[in-house]
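We were asked to recover a plausible sequence for a given structure. The inputs and outputs are reproduced exactly as logged, with field labels preserved.

PROBLEM: sequence recovery
POSITIONS: 356
GIVEN STRUCTURE:
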């Protein structure tokens, strides 16, 4: 989910030509979840092979990666490592929501509400270690480097951009900005014509760029104040203060020199509100120092250790994995690969490490 910055984070549309030869640090789990959520049958049933294994993540990864490579994008997929203890409650809540969503999906199917069933099904997506390993295998066959982060993938992606190893982080979440990422590209994996939920309307989704320094300057914020704003509206590590959105949060952090100052500005009711379930603060602000420190100093591989390289597509390996192992159409996969390799040849593109 990530922090919700709303209209405070102004973005500009990117042309694909602007991404040519740019290294993009892709938030792997964020992207794969998008594929698992959106690539489904009409009633929400996930795509599966003959052995009952889900394949939506591989379908999206293959076709989207080929599109990126055709556009000259050089993606590095950064995978999450061990989640911090701070994130435990968020992960538990996500599991509970998936259970509820599955119950709602089954009810919708029984009542013949197909569109509702698909909407609920999209909320039940799960990524297993086996699926992550499958994705890494496909990336390897495509010549795209996967990078294993020690903890949060977005933090590692931000570090790659800060160090200059990548041009931008690619994710739907704004957390990259709280981790200090200079540039964030959204919609990279969701571009194209998309149906508006619950409406018979379609919109064209394009990549968009958000830059940290202009964001901070536009709202007279420091990096720490942006983190404090994030904690007020809610992050992956705390729920946020009830009734506080981005606009109210911006007013609360204005001119503050510490988060203690902000807490003192909160209404008494917000400071003392407790959860009925566990008696703890619903905002999670009792851990604010730990949360702030995690955003400022997350566990990441330093630039000299975060090594990766780009290789050419191994067509035989891709076909073997997708078609022989996961029942993909050999004709479609081969046609896609042949068209890509032809495009690369005609454009003078190369698939060797030296040319990347």
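RECOVERED SEQUENCE:
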């Amino acid at each position: 989910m990530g922090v919700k910055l709303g209209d405070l984070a102004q973005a500009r549309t990117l042309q694909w030509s602007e991404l040519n030869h740019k290294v993009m640090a892709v938030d792997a789990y964020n992207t794969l979840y998008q594929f698992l959520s959106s690539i489904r049958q009409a009633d929400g049933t996930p795509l599966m092979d003959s052995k009952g294994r889900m394949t939506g993540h591989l379908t999206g990864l293959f076709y989207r990666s080929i599109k990126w490579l055709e556009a000259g994008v050089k993606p590095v997929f950064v995978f999450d490592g061990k989640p911090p203890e701070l994130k435990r409650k968020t992960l538990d809540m996500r599991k509970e929501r998936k259970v509820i969503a599955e119950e709602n999906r089954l009810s919708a199917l029984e009542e013949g509400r197909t569109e509702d069933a698909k909407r609920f099904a999209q909320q039940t997506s799960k990524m297993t270690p086996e699926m992550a390993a499958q994705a890494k295998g496909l990336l390897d066959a495509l010549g795209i480097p996967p990078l294993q982060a020690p903890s949060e993938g977005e933090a590692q992606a931000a570090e790659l951009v800060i160090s200059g190893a990548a041009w931008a982080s690619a994710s739907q979440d704004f957390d990259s900005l709280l981790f200090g990422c200079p540039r964030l590209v959204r919609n990279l994996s969701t571009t194209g014509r998309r149906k508006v939920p619950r409406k018979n309307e379609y919109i064209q989704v394009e990549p968009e760029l958000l830059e940290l320094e202009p964001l901070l300057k536009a709202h007279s914020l420091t990096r720490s104040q942006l983190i404090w704003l994030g904690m007020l509206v809610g992050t992956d590590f705390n729920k946020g203060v009830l009734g506080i959105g981005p606009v109210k949060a911006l007013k609360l952090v204005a001119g503050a020199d510490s988060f203690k100052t902000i807490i003192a500005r909160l209404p008494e009711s917000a400071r003392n509100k407790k959860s009925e379930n566990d008696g703890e603060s619903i905002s999670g602000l009792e851990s604010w120092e730990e949360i702030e420190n995690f955003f400022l100093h997350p566990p990441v591989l330093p630039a000299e250790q975060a090594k990766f390289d780009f290789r050419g597509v191994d067509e035989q390996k891709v076909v073997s994995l997708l078609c022989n192992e996961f029942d993909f159409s050999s004709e479609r996969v081969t046609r896609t690969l042949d068209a890509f390799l032809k495009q690369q040849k005609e454009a003078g593109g190369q698939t060797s490490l030296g040319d990347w």
